[in-house]
Amino acid sequence: MRSYLLVLALLAVTICSTEAVLKRRKHRRLRTTTTTEPAMLAAARLFPPAAGAARGDEAEHLELGMAERLDETRFQESERARVNEIMNEVGDENNGGNEVFMEDPCLKVHCSAGRVCEIDEHGDAVCNCIKDCPYETDSRRKVCTHHNETWPSDCDVYRQRCLCLDNSELCRGPQYHHVQIEYYGACREMPECLESEMSDFPRRMRDWLFNIMRDMAERRELSPHYLHMEREAEANLTRRWTNAAIWKWCDLDAHDNDRFVSRHELFPIRAPLMSLEHCIAPFLDRCDEDDDHRITLAEWGKCLELDEYELEDRCDELTDEAA
Ligand SMILES: *[C@@H]1O[C@H](CO)[C@@H](O)[C@H](O)[C@H]1NC(C)=O
Ligand SMILES: *[C@@H]1O[C@H](CO)[C@@H](O)[C@H](O)[C@H]1NC(C)=O
């Protein structure tokens, strides 16, 4: 009788843990498609303070939120690895060892923002609009759209755009077909960027670019080509700002490698910084000197107050081929 109970108890535990795995998997899929780019949010924390100024409470509050998002992404990654391992083990057992386990078709699919991979009735992977975004109570997750409308999270904005593109009745109106995130944090009145603040801004921007480049080198997130440029910047002070500026410009352009950084391509530096640095928008506007909505390397160097002759196109050729 006792051993019977023991078996029953074991069975219950097994069922519960399998269910937990499945639940986690669902959770995992949902969270990973909310497309918060961790490096870009972490980078906002590396922005050097203005000369003689301390960060206000609000800035700290936002920075904490960004750090949390970063932690969450790391958590998701480790969680995914763990679940895959478990699934592999289960698969191995079922197949008596060496056979490949039944593969989840969604593992190979990367859905765009606001979408989640689901398996349809034919067993194929399809990218559907996220059903429910995680309910956010934390004000630090809020985002401001280009309509100056505050949304609870980036997930909610991307989901809404997805619903409109798929002609769902949940689409709130035609103006949401192209809804965009303007910046992270709730919408607010942007203070005017004073001339005194603007005059210090190129220096802070240069420092920031180098800080991110160094941070990424330390975390081994740079390609060998850019790692070489980072070493050069460390060793030769005259190359410090130029190499960082060239790298960031190439990095932003890596979307399409057309040797222009479009307004759209500026998103990764603009959106996370807006709430913290109200001068970023006017600064970037100034960079586009001829107002053709794209920034050349020469324009980029000029607005960072770098010597134009030191700036040569040294983009990683590897990204060229990949694009
Ligand atoms: C955007 O919304 C915020 C908060 O509601 C408001 O303070 C600000 O003035 C608005 N900005 C613009 C440009 O309308
Ligand atoms: C540092 O970089 C500058 C500019 O590219 C170059 O002229 C100079 O020779 C370099 N110095 C050393 C020590 O490599």
UniProtKB/TrEMBL annotation:
Key word Secreted present: yes
SUPFAM superfamilies hit by this protein: EF-hand
A Pfam family it matches: SPARC_Ca_bdg
Residue ranges of every copy of the Follistatin/Osteonectin EGF domain listed in the record: 106-124
Metal-binding listed as a keyword: no
Subcellular location: Secreted
InterPro entries per record: EF-hand-dom_pair (IPR011992), EF_Hand_1_Ca_BS (IPR018247), Follistatin/Osteonectin_EGF (IPR015369), Osteonectin_CS (IPR001999), SPARC/Testican_Ca-bd-dom (IPR019577)
Keywords: Calcium, Disulfide bond, Glycoprotein, Secreted, Signal
Limits of the SPARC/Testican calcium-binding domain: 190-303
Signal peptide limits: 1-20
Protein's recorded name: SPARC
Organism expressing this protein natively: Vanessa tameamea
Upper taxonomic lineage: Eukaryota, Metazoa, Ecdysozoa, Arthropoda, Hexapoda
Gene name in the database record: LOC113403906
